[in-house]
Specification:
- The complex is a heterodimer.
- By secondary structure, chain A is mainly α.
- Helix content of chain A is 78%, strand content 0%.
- Chain A is elongated.
- Chain B is an alpha/beta fold.
- Chain B has one domain (10-192): P-loop containing nucleotide triphosphate hydrolases (Rossmann fold, 3-Layer(aba) Sandwich), CATH 3.40.50.
- Chain B is built from six helices and seven strands.
- Chain A: This is Protein FAM114A2.
Chain lengths: 516, 215
């Protein structure tokens, strides 16, 4: 929990920096001495780790750091209110309010400062231009009424809300006084413009524009103020409810563990979610890495080391062939290369979708294929493993076996069959190399057959496991998960096939050596 | 069997060599299974054994290549020396001919491995004291002259078997620590850290296109 907090804090640094820039001016105005805040020290260490930055940046950073603790102090002490109000920089205040809302919960007011500055905003020129002078007369007449209505509506609105929610506080009353003064101003200017309305022409236009501008300004103000008032009142009420029996929101802050660090709540939640997701994924990955990782199972069944040995054997033969080719020239070289190519052609596999179902049929086919090589090699281990897997599937109670266990068994079976097959290829290579009378064409033909049978056998096994997994689909809520597992079984089956084909390819130099 | 296949930080490749019938496969079996195999069939080409041991607090997986001793496999087994970090050269103390062939085995080892490969000489069948044909002293002298480590052991009783395999591992580990053995060299016979579980079996679907099968 603690680590996650500090992580949140670090990731929120950028925001804090942005905040600092705005606050600089205020800090100079001598805030009370700070008590050390835990987050502060953490932050320093965080900055210090970035030693790769040049010194200039470091200095800059440490400046920011010094600044940083001050706003926190302001937030904690309640004496900052006058400062905020006297600050003329509106944008500063605005941003401060947004970012620092947790600081200011006990003096929840700075909207007033804004109201005073609002009228100085540029007049909405577009509206003037569109409405033109002939509308001005009509509007002039309406102005007074509208102004009155707006004032009443906005005040009424806040009245309703305030009486509905609670009594207005002094700050609220002060704000309303200012507002009333504004309304008054607007009303005073209106009669004077009214007197010139019958003249028409430029004066009229100008005054009309002025009036409309005024009208728009005041109306806009009323609307904005009304809206702000409403928001403010709602906000206040919310804070009031939140603070009931919990002054300064101490308990709630403690609950959220954001005391003094002030990260945004959504930030914490997002990070917590990400963290949880990552953990889940890691757990899942570890699970699969341990129990259903094809490569490690293939290694456990010694497939990898046999493949490595087969590669070494193959390489040794290739070196021998290369030396021979280098030593030849002319017709002999051409003939030799032709022989080499013929062997490669003999080893081309044809896609044969032979359905293998019967165990004895497979054994017979394999025995026939192997016999052509005239070496003492048997595929009993492969056949036994296949048979065991089939028996396991036959005795399987789908209700008891989870899809994960089924998948694990599938991957393990595929890895084991492949490892055994690769081991056989390796043994064939060794035995062919010590064989006295080679018959390369027969050997190649035999190996093509063996490879075809073995890939069909493995594909068949994968299909059987996948079918079992599919049976689980109907009564499972994790359809996506099961589909992923089925896909994975087929994927590893394809992987097995490519291991076998690779092993076969590695035997080609062994066959070629036999032909010379 | 797949329990904790990743709990090691090094893989050392060993190769066991020596004349036919000196007990290479039995030594391996004794080391990996702690059992004596009384009627051991002839090894074809090469067979493998693995065991995870601990040296200086580091878990090391020994990948042991047990070669065929039959002369007809000599050319085949020569292909397997490359990249061995340790070579266990075995003779039978009851058969002088197996001792006499040591220099030939040693030549092969020196030619086909790298200079940092640790070579350990094992005089097997030391339980058969009555049939001794090679004295400890002469073998010790041979070992010293050639800079080999040496023990007499018995695959039957298990005497010194563990020591021979572990001592070799310690020597290899020491070479790594001293920087004499370059882990990055392809032929060092040492892999640091197991090959990672690699791709996540379920997430990496792009390999699907790699090689589509006829299944």
């Amino acid at each position: 929990m603690e680590t996650s907090d500090s992580e949140c804090f670090e990731s929120a640094d950028e925001e804090i920096y942005a905040e600092n820039e705005n606050k600089k001016s205020k800090k100079v105005a001598g805030s009370p001495p700070s008590k050390e805040i835990p987050c502060e020290t953490e932050h320093i260490s965080y900055l210090k780790t970035e030693e790769t930055k040049n010194e200039r940046t470091n200095i800059l950073d440490s400046n920011l750091q010094v600044d940083e603790d001050k706003p926190t102090k302001i937030g904690l002490s309640n004496t900052n209110e006058p400062e905020v109000i006297t600050d003329n920089n509106t944008s500063n205040i605005q941003e401060e309010d947004e970012v620092n809302m947790w600081d200011e919960d006990e003096d929840w007011e700075p909207v007033e400062t804004k109201t005073e500055i609002k009228p100085s905003e540029s007049p909405p020129l577009t509206i003037n231009r569109i409405w033109g002078w002939d509308l001005s007369a009509m509007l002039n007449a309406a102005t007074v009424g509208v102004t009155a209505v707006t004032t009443q509506v906005s005040q009424g609105l806040s009245n309703v809300l305030e009486t509905g929610i609670g009594a207005p506080d002094p700050a609220e009353l002060a704000r309303r006084t200012t507002q009333e003064e504004h309304t008054h101003d607007a009303e005073i200017t209106e009669p004077s413009t009214n007197s010139s309305t019958n003249l028409f022409g430029f004066g009229n236009l100008v005054s009309g524009v002025t009036q409309i501008t005024k009208l728009v300004e005041t109306t806009g103000n009323k609307v904005i103020l009304g809206g702000l008032d409403t928001l403010e009142t709602i906000g206040k009420k919310t804070m009031q409810v939140l603070q009931e029996g919990d002054p300064g929101l101490k308990k709630k802050r403690a609950l959220l563990k954001i005391e003094g660090e002030k990260p945004v709540l959504s930030h914490i939640l997002r990070e917590a979610k990400e963290k949880a997701e990552l953990e889940n994924r890691l757990l899942e990955e570890q699970h699969f890495a341990r129990k259903a990782n094809y490569e490690s199972l293939f290694d456990d069944h010694q497939g990898l080391v046999h493949l490595e040995a087969l590669e070494m054997l193959s390489k040794q033969c290739s070196i021998k062939l290369e030396r021979l080719i280098e030593s030849q020239s002319g017709r002999e070289l051409v003939e030799l290369q032709e022989t080499m190519n013929q062997i490669v052609e003999l080893c081309e596999l044809v896609d044969d979708d032979d359905e293998l179902e019967d165990a004895s049929e497979i054994k017979e086919k394999l025995d026939t294929a192997v016999s052509e090589m005239v070496i003492n090699i048997s595929y009993d281990k492969v056949l036994t493993t296949r048979k065991e897997a089939e028996q396991w599937l036959d005795n399987l109670h789908l209700g008891v076996c989870s899809e994960l266990e089924l998948h694990e068994q599938a991957i393990d079976t595929l890895a084991q069959l492949t490892a055994l097959a690769v081991e056989r290829y390796h043994k064939i290579g060794e035995l062919l190399l010590i064989k006295e009378h080679r018959s390369t064409a027969d050997e190649a033909d035999s190996l093509v057959q063996v490879t075809t049978i073995l890939t069909a056998l493995i594909g068949n096994m994968a299909t059987k496991f996948s079918n079992k997994l599919s049976e689980k689909l109907s009564d499972s809520t994790h359809k996506d998960h099961i589909n992923t597992l089925i896909t994975n079984v087929y994927f590893e089956s394809a992987n097995s096939t490519s291991y076998l084909k690779n092993a076969f390819q590695l035997l080609i130099p062994v066959l070629q050596v036999g032909a010379i | 069997m797949s329990a904790g296949p990743y709990n090691y930080s090094y893989i050392f490749k060993y190769i066991i060599i020596g004349d036919m019938g000196v007990g290479k496969s039995c030594l391996l079996h004794q080391f990996t299974e702690k059992k004596f195999m009384s009627d051991c069939p002839h090894t074809i080409g090469v067979e493998f054994g693995t065991r995870i041991i601990e040296v200086a607090g580091q878990k090391i997986k020994l990948q042991i290549w047990d070669t065929a001793g039959q002369e007809r496999f000599r050319a085949v087994t020569r292909s397997y020396y490359r990249g061995a970090a340790g070579a266990l050269m075995v003779y039978d103390i009851t058969r002088r001919s197996t001792y006499n062939h040591l220099s030939s085995w040693l030549t092969d080892t020196r030619n086909l491995t790298n200079p940092s490969t640790v070579i350990f000489l094992i005089g097997n069948k030391c339980d058969l004291e009555g049939q001794r044909d090679v004295t400890y002293e002469e073998a010790k002298q041979f070992a010293d002259e050639n800079g080999l480590m040496f023990v007499e052991a018995s695959a039957k009783t298990g005497q010194n078997v563990e020591e021979a395999f572990l001592e070799t591992a310690r020597k290899i580990y020491q070479s790594i620590q001293d920087g004499r053995l370059d882990l990055n060299a392809a032929e060092s016979g040492v892999q640091h850290k197991p090959s990672q579980p690699g791709r996540n079996t379920l997430s990496n679907d792009q390999q699907f296109n790699k090689d589509n099968c006829a299944c």
